[in-house]
Amino acid sequence: MSVSLKYAIDQLRTQARCDLQRFYTPNYFLGKDYSLIADFNLTWPLLQAPATNQLTSREIAAATALKDFSVYEIRYQKIWKDTKLVKDTAKKDCVELSESENREIYALLEIFYCSALSYTRAIGAPSLIKAFEQAAPKVQMSSATKIAPSTIRDWSFV
């Protein structure tokens, strides 16, 4: 993660917390400024019932971005911690993740970038938008195979 992206994430977390400040007490983050669990515990209940909590679209975007970042970071740290615990002691420098772990991390990161980009567009922060657009993974699209409608016999799945 580059320095500018880390700065952008810190700015996003700060702004999201400001947008959500009506949902927590002033001392909620006291002593846990960088706590991912505190971010998750704040946002998860809000997103479970956005209508009941009377969230605005900006607050929903803020809570989603904050939650997605928390989920990504918590899971990323857990995967790497577990990988380091079970690695072969003969290969001290060689730690590899399984393909499924790599996919999970990549998917969570992509989810976070999408929600972060959505939130930065909602708040209208050009520098943050640029940082997350540049950092977002580029998806490779391939041409889809076309199926003639007459070749499908059962349309019950539609």
Provide structural commentary.
By secondary structure, the chain is mainly alpha-helical. The chain is built from five helices and no strands. Helix 1 crosses helix 3, helix 3 packs antiparallel against helix 4 and helix 4 packs antiparallel against helix 5.
In short:
The chain has 158 residues and is mainly alpha-helical. The chain has five helices and no strands.
Can you lay out the helices and strands and say which pair or pack?
Elements lengths: L2 H17 L16 H13 L8 H30 L12 H25 L2 H10 L23
Q: Tell me about the biggest sheet?
A: none
Question: What is the tally of helical segments?
Answer: 5
Oligomer: single chain
Category from helices, strands and their pairing: mainly alpha
Shape by Cα distribution: globular
Strand content: under 5%
Distance between the termini: 42 Å
- The total beta strand count reads 0
Q: What is the succession of H and E elements?
A: HHHHH
Helix content: 55-70%
Alpha-carbon Rg, integer: 20 Å
Task: Note poorly predicted spans.
Answer: none
How confident is the prediction overall: mean pLDDT? 81
